[in-house]
Amino acid sequence: MNIKDILITGKANLQAYCDTLLELAADDPNIIAVTSDSRESGKLTPFADKYPNQIVEVGIAEQNLVGVSAGLASTGKKVFTTSPGCFLATRSLEQVKNDVAYSDYPVNLIGISAGVSYGALGSTHHSLHDVAALRAINNMTIVVPADNFETKEAIKAAAVSPKPFYIKIGKKNMPHLHAENETFIIGKASTILEGADVAFIACGETVYPTVEAAQLLNKEGISARVISMHTIKPLDADVIIKAAKECKAFISVEEHSINGGLGEACASVILEAGLSVPFKRMGIPDEETVAGSQTEILEHYGISASGLSDEAKRLIKQLKHLTNEKYELK
Question: How far apart are CA 261 and CA 201, in angstroms?
Fold first, then answer.
């Protein structure tokens, strides 16, 4: 895809999830939505109105939420468990581990309003730990879609999978990064833009700021590769190794703590492959987090077009000093 082709803004990935669930339920009465007082915030009211016998409300009780979901899945239901990511991945972690993952029930855990989507509500409502916690649990597929297309395809894939999923989605309207006829495969990253100077590997709603950064870098004669690593587990190691070999610098970007998330996963792949490349993890550092809008928080931590392009130029300058290669940066 060309930078100029990324122009049209779609709906929120949260809305894309709910619309897809409605479509799937029209042909499958075994699809069940289970929520923890998240019918409104999860945009599931239209689903409840149309399929009142296919939704279960447990109230603000996340441990019960996951336990009930596992029980329904054990009877052959295709369960979509919807709750804010900040609570779903920790308050019910024991149930996710034992009742879902270790019991091998196909529960689809949908962490809504994830990352810093609830920004103004502060640290208690930031889900900056969910990927780190769930990556350590066996038998859990983790998907963080970047746009409506990836969200829709991830939900469709989860609906037919016999394995449990965790899908992390936000509520900001997202630009379309894919053509509708593109192929989406769980475990295989999507290359949004090609480039050879710096590789941005991002997930979720941080993919688009890397596209904007690539646009800025392009004006300075620096080509940026942008990869949407929509599946964090299983990780597409091949695309990471290819980018580390072909690009001169490597930046991971995520709406998550820099500890235990996409960046550390990429770093381990690169190191185990015996490669060396200037590398930077962009995410939320290990410190007291700030409050504000999602955009304000991400900009505070350099996850913006200017912040990411500046980081790319810093890495390239670092490489220039090491190799004496010449890069003319405006």
Answer: 12
The pLDDT value recorded for residue 5 is 55
Q: Is 249 exposed, middle or buried (0-12, 13-18, 19+ CB in 10 A)?
A: buried
Range of the domain at 303: 190-323
Mean pLDDT, the chain, rounded, equals 91
Cα(271)–Cα(269) distance, integer angstroms: 6
For residue 126, the one-letter residue type is H
Confidence at residue 7, expressed as pLDDT on a 0 to 100 scale: 55
Does 164 share its domain with 207?
A: no
The answer to whether residue 330 sits within a structural domain is no
* Distance in angstroms (rounded) separating the CA atoms of residues 124 and 90: 11
165/281 same-domain check: no
- This prediction has a pTM of 0.92
Q: What is the pLDDT of residues 153-186, one digit of tens each?
A: 999 999 999 999 999 999 889 999 987 778 999 9
Counting the structural domains of the chain, the total is: 2
Rg of the chain taking only CA atoms, in angstroms? 20
